[in-house]
Amino acid sequence: MIDILHAAEIVFSAQSLLMLFLGVFAGIIIGALPGLTVNMGIALLLPLTFTFEGMAGILMLLGVYCGAIYGGSITAILINTPGTPASAATVLDGYPMAMKGEAGRALGLSTASSMFGGLFSTIALVLVAPQLAKVATGLSAPEYFALGVFGISIITSVSSHSIIKGLMGGAIGLAIACIGLDPMTAGMRFTFDSYYLMGGISFVPVLVGLFAFSQAMLGMEDNFVEKGRSEDRKVKVKIDRVLPSWLDFRRVLPTYLRSSAIGTVIGAIPGTGGDIASFVSYTEAKRWSKHPEEFGHGSPEGVSAPEAGANAVSGGAMVPLMTLGIPGDGATAIMMGAFMVQGLQLGPMLFTEHPVEVNTIFIGLFAANILMGALGFLGIRLFTKVMIVPRKVLVPIILVLCAVGSYSVNHTMIDVFVMMIAGVLGYVMMRLDFSMSPIVIGIILGPMVETNLRRALIMSDGDFSVFLTRPICATFLVIAVITLLLPVVGPKFGAWRRARKAMSATGAEGSTVD
Amino acid sequence: MRPANVVVAILSVLLGVTILWLAGDLTHFDENGVPGEAFWPSFVAWLFIALGCVQGAEVAFVRSAHAGRTVDLHSVPVRIAFLGAAIALAFAVLLTYFGFIAATAVFVPTLMLLMGSRSPLQISLTTVGVIAVIWVFFVLIFNNELPPPSLFE
């Protein structure tokens, strides 16, 4: 109880509330600007958080995370362009609703459902995470190694185009993590007698480069293709009443509950994310709706379901992150890096060693979602103006922030150059169908996997069977193999089943004709 | 995409071989059979080699894998993006010698001009705004340090 009160004192201090407000505000703007992603927002603001003492920086990032998922719905509804992939399903009914002259109603429903989804998943996090952490406290080096391998195995799920390139990205992350002092013997590895490399390649500049600098380069490219047109992003609809009516709320409440539960569960599964949660929620809402014919033409449930589902991912994704130290996607991988830099080692021990910090995160998530709702209802007209800011103004701002942010971590210009190199390489890799998230997952989980692998082998005198004879360890390794292979084998198996079904149907038709 | 994928496969194998070569001087296993400093990098190196081979095999045998996907790293928009990155690199050099305010005052207008902005008001307002907001937030509010001009120190 004392821990909870202490945590509440931290969250409701003036500094923390200001940071949360700034985080949510920045997050909504980032989400509302097409082309800027949640990952980019967190990466850009991450260096800023190092200047704050205690949990204020983490609270700011939580605010960005929640705000950016919601912000994507604004452009989805008003200009038919999802600000983030998680808002792609919102376009289906949000834009038709706006075209019918109900833009305010659609925005109000999306804001309320985002807040509901976020709060629902936070309650789930508070209830589930401590229990899961209790189960996980008995784990030792072999189990942690298996957990790390499981975390790395989600790379195949977060690789957008090519699984092989996703794995290569993960290997690049693992290779980057090898540079510096050996975690067990403190011997120098690939440092080439450089003082800078002895501490390893700084994580934050690489992250800022991969997610923000490369994105700014894509912005320059898009700006050239669009020839600087910003008229397409002008809002042509009138925004009236934003607060949902009681009738609307009563109609969509079951959708809120169902979609929030779906989003929370999907968020807790590593390798999934807001985009999957929003589409599954949308499909289920249509299946359960009394008016399925309205879907696609401006259905209130069609706007509410994807938003509640997508925002419920935030709490769900924190479950494996906080209890097992496994990031579920790129955004949580970046957050994990932020936690590590702040000296918080995520995993089961977090709950016993840092109870105040854990409760601060719980209360902070509640506060972030409430702030997100309040800002959404009060500032929607402001956010609609922000999204028409042209790329030729945005890109220079992003690049200056990248440079200043990278410098501010260690106060060395080398970090700025590292960031730029990572950014240019990231841009080229994106053009070649590589995803950035696997690289970050490799960098974050590489040291954990290596250290625990070697620790486990020391424990077993070099006997590799230790990983197969311990039930929990073996289970995680089996799950990791399944996770790794499922995206490869799954579609092929599906195609084979469909082909077999089609063949048997053709055979049956033939025999009927005979 | 096929030629690019061949290059990716070759680079992956080369990277793996380079890591193996660099890890040559490090300890693989100690006298008790416990893995040393080179153990994990060697694993990563073999992973690169294996993935490079799989990528090569995909290019050779699964022609439909990237059907319809193209990559052009020489198109005008891509060149503009590279030019922008080069200007950003020059900005980093300017930051080192002339500090935040002077370097940003040169960088923001240059990049905006490259991106097609022709309004002097928009350019000057953006430049002054970026410098002022970042300075207020970093220096005044967050008590952080911005790159100082090393040339005048």
Structure in words:
- The complex is a heterodimer of chains A (about 525) and B (about 150).
- Chain A has about 525 residues and is mainly α.
- In chain A, about 75% of the residues lie in helices and about 0% in strands.
- Chain A has helices at about 1-10, 15-30, 40-50, 55-80, 90-100, 105-135, 140-155, 155-160, 165-180, 195-200, 205-225, 245-270, 275-290, 300-325, 330-340, 350-355, 355-385, 390-410, 415-430, 435-460, 465-470, 470-514; strands spanning about 180, 190.
- A two-stranded antiparallel ribbon of chain A has the order 1-2.
- The termini of chain A are far apart.
- With about 150 residues, chain B is mainly α.
- Helix content of chain B is about 70%, strand content about 0%.
- Chain B has four helices and no strands.
- The mean pLDDT of chain B is about 90.
Throw out a few tags for this protein:
heterodimer; A: 514 residues; mainly alpha; two-stranded antiparallel ribbon; 22 helices; B: 153 residues; 69% helix
Which structural class do you get from the secondary structure elements of chain A?
A: mainly alpha
* Count of spatially separate domains of chain B: 2
Beta-strand residue percentage of chain B: under 5%
Radius of gyration of chain B over all CA atoms, rounded? 24 Å
Low-confidence stretches of chain B: none
The secondary-structure element order of chain A is HHHHHHHHHEEHHHHHHHHHHHHH
Largest interface summary: A-B, 64 and 69 residues
Instruction: Give a short account of the largest sheet of chain A.
Output: 2 strands, antiparallel
The neighbouring-strand order within the major sheet of chain A is 1-2
Which secondary-structure class do the elements of chain B indicate? mainly alpha
Order of helices and strands of chain B: HHHH
Uncertain segments of chain A of ≥5 residues (pLDDT<50)? none
Query: What is the makeup of the main sheet of chain B?
Result: none
Q: How far is the N terminus from the C terminus of chain B?
A: 50 Å
Chain oligomer state: heterodimer
Number of strands of chain B: 0
Task: Provide the β-strand percentage band of chain A.
Answer: under 5%
Overall mean pLDDT of chain A stands at 85
